Amino acid sequence: MSKITIEVMQPSQVKISDEYDHVIVPGSEGDFGVYEDHTPFITKMRPGILQLYKNNSVEKYAIHDGFVTVENNVVKIVCENIEKENEIDKGRAEAAKERAEKRLRSSESDIDFRRAELALKKALVRLKLQSR
Amino acid sequence: MANLRDIKNRIKSVKSTKQITNAMKMVASSKLRKAQINILNARPYADYVNEILRTLKYKNIQSQHPLLDDPREKAKKAIVVVTADKGLCGSFNTNIIRKATEYINSHPDTDIICFGKKGRDYLKKRSDNIIREYTDLFNEMNFDVSKEASEFLLDLFLKENYGKIEVLYNEFKSAIQQNVVVKQLLPVIPIESEDVSKMDFLYEPDEDTIIEELGRKYVHVDIWRIMLESSAAEQGARMTAMDSATINAAEMIEHLTLNYNRVRQSAITTEIIEIASGAEAINL
Question: Residue B118: how many CB atoms within 10 A of its CB?
């Protein structure tokens, strides 16, 4: 089976650089899978779960925002925050969730509301990945 | 001639100063190493954001997003002045401040954003145009802090009708060399590169959204890079300054010790003469 290369870059490091069979990426307009010979494609990501498949096993990451480009069987992702399943701090995620919910109830301005909403989404993604 | 105890005290104080400068040199060199690693780690991310933005600009010459447009000449301008929070780093801060003063004198209505305490302290007394200041940025280098600052700058540019925002900072050349440079931050100018992809991408949701988001990311990473460079340059400057301070202190100690011994010797000689002449007087 042929492979595709995944590179995930953060401002502080290159997080992943490896070959996989296929991947599922949380795009801003919906999750999409990338197999071999995908058409060149560029999109934003939304908070969600990045799934990397290799030899029938899967690695899962919580990913929060960023960009993904697909070109010549190379998937490049630039994002600020990404965490592997076992790197997630459940306590912190729960605290963040509560904080965001509280702020959603009390915030008046549009910007605060959107920020809190985003924070809540991130916390939910982390918790979802944790509880599996 | 100076008195023995005075010289001794002087030697003691120079010695302790030397210890401090030496320790600061060590700390600066280890921080410099860390800062250099940070710069290297940030590179793939920065390069890739630049590459996509470059590709998009190349393909969409007709769609002029304000982030990528030419500077609006008549609009307000702002400059970000990046200095350190601490002193004792040679001419690191003075160079920036001198350049900033020049700049402000020739463009008096430019608004100023200060990164770092040293620049703020100086410019506050001489200008009323400081609209924002960020201090204690460089202790814990953190992408979120730089992101917050860049969001503020993006808001200035996109919402408050600033036409051009520049950054004045120390570029990190090598451990012993820093250059003061002025760089245009906004509108964004992607660095020319060979790696322009000729692929026709599909965009989701649409080109404008992608360009706007990528432009923002570019500014975030640009500010982050500038902070990393400035901090590496600061540590480099401090290392050099403290190194020469240590050498000077050693030289001074040598000089003082020589002086001390000379004074001591002449005191002993005087004493011996006194004793000898006293004994002579008794024996007579």
Answer: 22
